[in-house]
Design a protein that fits this description.
With 329 residues, this protein is α/β, with parallel strands linked by helices. It has nine helices and 16 strands. The chain has helices spanning 42-49, 119-140, 156-167, 179-187, 201-208, 226-231, 254-259, 277-292, 309-317, and strands at 3-6, 15-18, 30-40, 64-65, 69-77, 89-93, 102-106, 110-112, 147-150, 171-175, 192-194, 214-219, 233-241, 264-266, 300-304, 324-328. Strands 3, 5, 6, 7, 8, 15 and 16 form a seven-stranded mixed β-sheet that branches. A six-stranded parallel β-sheet has the order 11-10-9-12-13-14, sandwiched between helices. α4 (179-187) links the parallel β10 (171-175) and β11. The longest helix has 22 residues, at 119-140. The radius of gyration is 20 Å and the shape is globular.
């Protein structure tokens, strides 16, 4: 079968586009899926670079097939799997192997798709949608009347966070690197969209909130923004660092959290919030329902053919991607 694989970690040069990869076999607790469409994500870059080489949360090891999000049809079930059934349409994320014609996926990570959700929509919504869902409902536990700051608000997760939060009655402030990207955040419902301004966003947020700061900051950038995110947060507020696109913060003293106003800081991961099939299906159902009722819009800005997937990764790595990219397998 066709597959996009890596045998070592490194730059784009380690990626192999293969026509001779073996078709996987569904093992215990797994299903075999004929992949129709796959999401193209920054996590693919991190996988290639080796950022999960020692991870226990995401135990992806080389050699491996890239692609951690997809949608397709179940063609076989491994021992012990009664659901989903052969022939059902499904979607998944944080299970590697989607950049291939067939993928063996843990059944507990799969959501059954409603007939009204197309494969490309599912492959564009599963990872970022479930991430935004747990960040808002579980990690932050925000309710109507609260406020928050969303970094990288024109990105795939950022856009969904803005829309979901606005739908819940939460006031959203946003940051993005260009005027074009800030316009996207405003269009999704943010009350203000700010440049990063070398950390100046924190002062602007303080001004806009009457000196109080926001209840929660959703920070996917890490090193470049985290300390200023703390400055933008109210006393006893929460900073959620759910990504390290700009690099990891390796020198943070907990004392700083006290000095910033007795803040809470957490570094959650989606895997710990997708612990079983019922939770995966519940989150996916909420995301798909919002898409169908029109309250959640996910723009698929790029659609790639199989051989073009490395091109999509290059665009993401160069920070040129706005919205979501998918690949037809």
């Amino acid at each position: 079968m066709r597959a996009i694989t890596i045998d070592s970690h490194g730059g784009p040069e380690v990626v192999r586009v293969r026509d001779d990869a073996p078709v996987p076999v569904a093992g215990p607790g797994e299903i075999l899926v004929r992949v129709a469409c796959a999401g193209v994500n920054f996590m693919d870059i991190h996988t290639r670079q080796g950022k999960y080489a020692d991870s226990q949360t995401y135990p992806v090891r080389i050699p491996c097939t890239l692609g951690m999000e997809g949608a397709g049809v179940v063609v076989a079930a491994g021992p012990g799997v009664a659901h989903p059934a052969v022939g059902q349409r499904v979607a998944w994320c944080i299970a590697w192997g989607s950049f291939a014609e067939y993928a063996a996926i843990p059944a507990r990570l799969v959501a059954v798709l409603p007939d009204t959700i197309a494969f490309d929509t599912a492959a564009s919504a599963m990872f970022q949608g479930c991430t935004a869902h747990y960040l808002l409902h579980d990690a932050a536990a925000l309710t109507a009347g609260a406020n928050c700051l969303v970094h990288a608000a024109s990105g795939s997760i950022g856009q969904i966070l803005v829309q979901m939060a606005t739908r819940m009655g939460i006031e959203v402030y946003a940051t993005a690197s260009t005027e074009e990207k800030r316009a996207v955040a405003l269009a999704r419902g943010a009350v203000a969209a700010l440049p990063y301004d070398d950390g100046g966003f924190a002062d602007r947020v303080r001004t806009l909130t009457g000196g109080r700061g926001v209840d929660v900051v959703f920070d996917s950038l890490g090193k470049a923004t985290l300390r200023d995110s703390m400055r933008a947060t109210r006393k006893r507020g929460l900073v959620i660092n759910y990504g390290n696109v700009s690099g990891s913060v390796k020198d943070l003293d907990p004392y700083e959290l006290g000095e910033a106003g007795s803040l809470f800081l957490t570094r959650p991961r989606l895997a710990d919030h997708m612990a079983d099939a019922a939770t995966v299906q519940r989150r996916a159902d909420d995301v798909f329902a919002a898409i169908l009722d029109g309250s959640l819009r996910i723009d698929i800005t790029d659609r790639y053919a199989f051989d073009e997937i490395p091109k999509g990764h290059a665009r993401i790595e160069a920070r040129e991607q706005v919205g979501k990219a998918v690949a037809w397998i």
